[in-house]
Amino acid sequence: MNTPLRADLAALSPWIPEGARILDLGCGDGGLLAHLAARRGVHGYGLEIDPANVAACVARGVNVIQADLDQGLSDFADGAFDVVVMSQALQALQRPDAVVAEMLRVGQSAIVTFPNFGHWRVRRALLAGRMPVTPSLPERWFDTPNIHLCTVADFEDLCARRGWSISRRALLDRRHRESLAIRLLPNLFCEQALYELRRPGR
């Protein structure tokens, strides 16, 4: 199956080393793992809760485990993976901080992506007294899976509090491009945030 990668996955895929052991949390239909296995020789597992996505992973030949991320990663040993990826799932978790901590326990590095709730379109909607609906946050308040939205500033504050080192970041617009405006005022103009994290000493 030669389906193009979702834009956020295409943006983070160059961060994955050749031959890495990878765990993809909320892996969807397995597109990232299949892409990386074919082009970078990676191997690993995906975790996914949706039965239809689990079936799609199996059809692609992707190793997948049906699991709820909010239940933790206790089945995996410390340092079992080179990279643990979680793209566009942080804001849908009951305890996103606990899941990121687990990612850094089982992986040498963690890659996390999320929509920035500090973007100007979000602020404009809130100033108008409405919950925002934007290209990066398209669901309405009553049918959204998001329960813990955060801003770039919030996430970096959490990392500082927990002692997680930010080894790399990419702050992008909704078309997953960088811009001067984002570099000058990242929390106002970034729509999609990508972070690579490491625990101190790694």
Question: Overview of this structure, please?
Answer:
The structure is a single chain. The protein is of the alpha/beta class and about 200 residues long. The protein has one domain (about 5-200): Rossmann fold (3-Layer(aba) Sandwich). About 30% of the residues lie in helices and about 20% in strands. The chain is built from 8 helices and 7 strands, in the order αβαβαββαβααβααβ. It has helices at about 5-10, 30-40, 50-60, 95-105, 120-125, 150-160, 180-185, 185-190, and strands at about 20-25, 45-50, 65, 80-85, 105-115, 165-170, 190-200. Strands 3-2-1-4-5-7-6 form a 7-stranded mixed β-sheet, with helices on both faces. Helix 2 (about 30-40) links the parallel strand 1 (about 20-25) and strand 2 (about 45-50). The longest helix has 11 residues, at about 95-105. The protein is globular, with a radius of gyration of 17 Å. The termini are far apart. The mean pLDDT is about 95.
